[in-house]
Design brief:
mainly beta, Rossmann fold, 4 domains, five-stranded antiparallel β-sheet, five-stranded mixed β-sheet, globular
Length: about 750
């Protein structure tokens, strides 16, 4: 447990009270260290059997006594990472983990340390529980790390070493190992982040003796073997920046920079290449990257690092840039015309603040990567879609845009601070292509949108009532003047962004109108109208199943704090329902100990069930709207043996009033939900709701979710003023004049 910075390799070796000195036979630690920085003493096989960074040094923490069980410090922030950081380590490789796919306290501790030490990158093995989806294991579920999956090795890797004999393996490095754990995480994030060779890896062998000094090798497989391979590559990336290669592609130490952890991670994911993987026993390539099987793919540093004229592309790096909340940073790159290298790629990474352990949504600061090509087409980070509509990524702190066939002209790369709870966020941006960075030209809109709209990247987004390229033309109202002679909009209308409109009891008819522009927006909005206290309510019964058949109702754990050792189960089986929607109105259960599980069931008996995304729910974050497309849903609440919280309250319904032609327009129900629709909304949406239940003069309207594109998509709320009733003139009678007799 001492430090010797002059040692050839191991500057520090630590063991703990529950571990012992040394390794076991076929030791795990010896093998992975050889892959990171082993330096072969045999001149005949130096290149083939060196580690990824053979001149690097090591600080080693021994967390096992028998090679199988682990002893971890109670707090990694206090007892694991600080020592390595204090002796100068900037990379930390971890070939251990669990089968728990949640964002555990261990994952949270790693995120915290990286956030507090912005130049320290942690790599973690994804796990060996593949090939199923959602098999990623904590702490590989942390956000700020590099979670590493395993790929196949190559035939060239199986060279003979000092007479070592073994079977020949006809492998290709482009295939994902079948055992490699896959994403998504419970909150929908891509994991692993990257993939490195991890199958049949030959590296240093331990015979378990402290005195034999043998130099054999051993073959092992697993994401434990892939992680050190990636760690060695990450060390080379740090060396690239520290020794000044970035400036001109050749070594120039005086031009060296100290990269942040987010920059090293950005380079690694930028180097990703698609890999073949097995899905339903069929080998296939992902339609795009990132992908839940492999993240950003196989690391190929030749595809990102620039070494002068021999490299067909340029590398542009921006590190420790800062964006403010609701600000967009612009960076422009001029692509050469008729270039032989046509790929343009931009990668954005930021070190996100840690989320509370067991959080349902772990992203704290939401940044968005956008790229506008010379034709003004917009691309969004990670190529996500929802309901057929392209959407911005609101789950990952690593985003990428790849344009395979880039043409000549200016590419505008934008980093948007969409939702920053801390006000500002530092980030790293990597761009490659046959490009040079230029000053961004000023983008103006025709006639400044006639003061009837907002200018977005040279295109007008018109306010309600206006249309045309410059918003100078009147547009027909969404609600006919024969229905609403006028509309008295809220003083704060239109609403935009993520701030919820204030709840209020409003006179009827209530008007809600929604407009989206020609490009991509957000997740949309959800509003509840009416009085939920009038609905039938069920508190459930401990250790029993309660089946509810009404078309709508309330689920709650009960009044006040719930009890310990509860297992309450509800099956929602409304008669003739095609869908069941569930929206939590209140949610506060003990984080990480008490849980609400939500399932889609195939029948009313719920003998076959599938857990809905995000489930189980814990903590105090209110879950988003949930839907079962079968018409059957099961909700299970469990509490542990100690500590109770206020609990939850949820409403369920069988109908959602959304922006489809059949659901918008006149709404005559006295209670319900209004929404743009499930999933992300599309471009050029124009929809309206007129809430007017017969005989009801006022209704509560409360917005529950709000995420629409700030400044460019709009939500209007107001009261309809009907035209005055048409009155007919009083009837008149006509009669012949009275005449006197002649």
């Amino acid at each position: 447990n001492c430090v010797n910075m002059n040692h050839r390799k191991i500057v520090s070796y630590r063991y703990f009270s529950s571990t012992n000195v040394g390794d076991t036979s076929y030791g795990h630690g010896t093998h992975v260290v050889g892959s990171i920085l082993g330096n072969s003493l045999s001149s005949d096989y130096t290149v083939s059997y060196n580690g990824g960074a053979p001149d690097a040094k090591l600080s080693f923490d021994d967390i096992s006594s028998d090679g199988s069980s682990l002893w971890l410090p109670d707090d990694l922030n206090v007892d694991l990472f600080p020592h390595a950081y204090s002796v100068g380590a900037k990379l930390h490789s971890n070939s251990w983990g669990s089968t728990t796919s949640a964002y555990t306290s261990t994952a949270q501790e790693i995120d915290q340390f990286i956030f507090d030490h912005e130049d320290f990158l942690v790599l973690v093995a994804a796990g060996n529980d593949g090939p199923g989806a959602g098999t990623i294991g904590s702490p590989a579920t942390a956000k700020n790390i590099l979670a590493v999956g395993a790929g196949d090795n190559t035939l060239a890797a199986y060279v003979e070493y000092d007479g070592y004999s073994g079977s020949s393996h006809d492998k290709q490095m482009t295939g994902l190992a079948y055992f490699s754990s896959r994403g998504p995480t419970p909150d929908g994030r891509f994991k692993p982040d990257i993939v490195c060779p991890g199958e049949s890896i030959r590296s240093a062998y331990s015979d378990g003796s402290l005195t034999s000094y043998q130099c054999s090798i051993a073959e092992m497989s697993g994401t434990s073997m892939a992680t050190p391979t990636c760690a060695g590559a990450s060390a080379l990336v740090r060396q690239y920046f520290r020794e000044g290669f970035l400036a001109s592609g050749v070594r120039n130490v005086s031009a060296g920079i100290a990269p942040s952890a987010s920059l090293v991670k950005a380079i690694m994911v930028h180097a990703g290449q698609p890999m073949w993987f097995q899905e339903s026993s069929v080998w296939t390539l992902p339609p795009s990257l990132p992908h839940f099987s492999q993240g950003f793919g196989r690391v190929d540093l030749n595809s990102v690092l620039y070494f002068g004229a021999q490299t067909p592309f340029k590398l542009r790096v921006l590190d420790r840039e800062v964006v403010q909340d609701q600000q967009t940073r612009h960076y422009c790159f001029l692509a050469a015309s008729q270039s032989s290298y046509t790929r343009f790629r931009a990668s954005l990474v930021w070190t996100d603040p840690p989320a509370p352990a067991w959080s349902q949504r772990t992203l704290i600061h939401d940044l968005n990567l956008m790229v506008q090509d010379p034709s003004r087409r917009l691309y969004f980070g990670n190529n996500l879609t929802d309901g057929g509509n392209a959407i911005k990524d609101s789950a990952n702190n690593c985003e990428q845009v790849t344009i395979a066939n880039a043409t000549g002209g200016i590419y505008r790369v934008m980093v948007e601070g969409s939702d920053l709870q801390g006000g500002t966020q530092q980030f790293s941006l990597v761009v490659t292509g046959d490009v040079q960075q230029v000053t961004c030209p000023v983008q103006t809109c025709p006639n400044s949108c006639s003061s009837h709209g907002s200018c977005k990247l040279g295109v007008c987004s018109c306010f309600l009532g206006y249309q045309g390229d410059d918003c100078s033309l009147p547009s027909p109202p969404l609600i006919s003047p024969t229905v609403c002679q006028s509309i008295a909009y809220d003083a704060s209308s239109p609403y935009s962004g993520t701030t919820l409109p204030p709840p209020a009891v409003r006179p009827t008819p209530i008007v809600v109108e929604f407009l989206s522009d020609a490009s991509i927006g957000g997740k949309g909005f959800l509003a509840m109208f009416g009085d939920s206290s009038s609905l039938p309510s069920s508190n459930g019964t401990n250790n029993q199943v309660v089946t509810l058949s009404a078309s709508q109702g309330i689920l709650t754990d009960g009044n006040g704090n719930y009890d310990n050792n509860w297992v309450k189960t509800w099956i929602l089986a409304p008669a003739l329902a095609q869908q069941v929607y569930l929206k939590f109105l209140e949610f506060d259960v003990e984080n990480g100990w008490d849980f609400v599980y939500v399932y889609e069931c195939s029948t009313a008996s719920c003998s076959s069930q599938v857990q809905l995304q995000g489930s189980p729910f814990t903590g105090a974050t209110v879950p988003d709207l949930l839907v079962s497309s079968t018409g059957f849903m099961k909700v299970v609440f469990t509490s542990d043996t100690s500590v109770t919280y206020p609990g939850f309250k949820a409403v369920y319904l069988t109908h959602l009033h959304d922006c489809s032609s059949s659901s918008s327009g006149l709404v005559q129900a006295s209670f319900g939900l209004l929404s743009d629709g499930m999933g992300a909304y599309g471009a050029n949406m124009r929809c309206s709701f007129l809430v007017q239940p017969p005989g009801v003069t006022s209704l509560q309207l409360k917005f529950l979710e709000m995420d629409i594109e700030q400044t460019f998509d709009y939500l209007y709320v107001g009261q309809c003023v009907p035209p005055p009733p048409t009155t007919s003139p009083a009837p008149t009678t006509s009669q012949a004049p009275t005449t006197s007799p002649a």
